[in-house]
Specification:
Length: 114
Amino acid sequence: MPSPQTRAPSEYQRNAFAPSILAAIACLAGIALLSHEYHLAIRFIVTILAVIIGWFALQARQWWWMPVMLAIAVVWNPLYPFAFTGPWWVGAHVAAAAVFLVAGALIRSPRTDA
């Protein structure tokens, strides 16, 4: 019987991965809710998660993600919403979901021992 091998701990951690998946799901769900009153909740979710992912990018010293996340947070801003409609807004939802997934996969920071 072979002996179990111990796996070396990872050198990096991806703190933005889980929020980016949630944000991508919210963006894609927002397409179905465009004409519904629940779209306001989607705007809140996307905006808050964009700020969280931007913060994780800043902590990982990958500052180039900050303007992207800030732009998403401004466009999906629920307090002073832009009146976007039509296929461009649907495309923006799909593009934002893709950006969230790419950011979640690429934003990583070195693991520190506690």
